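Could someone model acetoacetyl-coenzyme A with this protein?
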Amino acid sequence: MARVVLVTGGTRGIGKAISERFKKDGYAVAANYGGNAEAAKACEEELGIKTYKFDVSNYEETAAGLKQIEADLGPIDVVVNNAGITRDAPFHKMTPDQWTQVIDTDLSSAFNVTHPVWTGMRERGFGRVINISSINGQKGQFGQANYSAAKAGLIGFTKALAQEGAKKGITVNVVAPGYIDTDMVRAVPEKVLETIIATIPTGRLGKAEEIASMCAYLASEEAAFINGATMTVNGAQYITG
Ligand code: CAA
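Reply:
Sure, complex below.
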């Protein structure tokens, strides 16, 4: 039986590349999306996977979505917590709404999605949880107090949960992308983006497929001893110990 993977925010950007890679590797793929039905339909047709609309910042709505996925495809073996938004603003201009939206969607979503499937993973003795953080959760970014806090929070969440799942065959890891060529990064003002690219030693934005291949590896049997780790994929823009 094919393993079942859920990719949140799995119909666009990095998430779509992850969905595509898992499909190619033989998984049954459920791609969640929050609002863009047109992109979801296109993704479904292009990749031949099922898509599911629910708001990962809402626990009850997410639990219902997960139930539907498990009814359609079977128990979820692999979760990729990828869904995320930005609401960039210098802190003195940041509104409480911009703070809450990003924390709820980028950080609390990892609780909302992982918590309902955790008991099943423990019972079956296998699970993979992959949390998509960011270079900006590692180093901080001007204009992203909300996003940097949420993405750093995912790293702490991962380190705690990795210890809890280890005896049950579950691994929990972070992938921390640098600046990847997606709509989210292209939304950064062009002049600002030029200055950012100038600080990437590899001299280019990353490709979504380069994040997807790391996720595929972490989900594999081969990666069973990698647990609680942060896998940095950023073209040497920020190097951590
Ligand atoms: N360091 C220091 N100062 C900076 C700065 C930086 N990195 N970026 C901007 N500034 C300064 C400017 O020089 C300017 O200073 P002065 O007022 O003295 O001239 C000031 O900040 C700009 O202030 P504004 O009030 O005009 O700011 P704004 O309301 O236009 O917003 C911003 C600025 C939204 C932060 C904008 O600079 C921006 O979008 N920056 C990019 C943030 C970023 O990297 N986001 C990543 C998005 S992609 C992503 O998040 C994916 C991922 O995981 C990597």
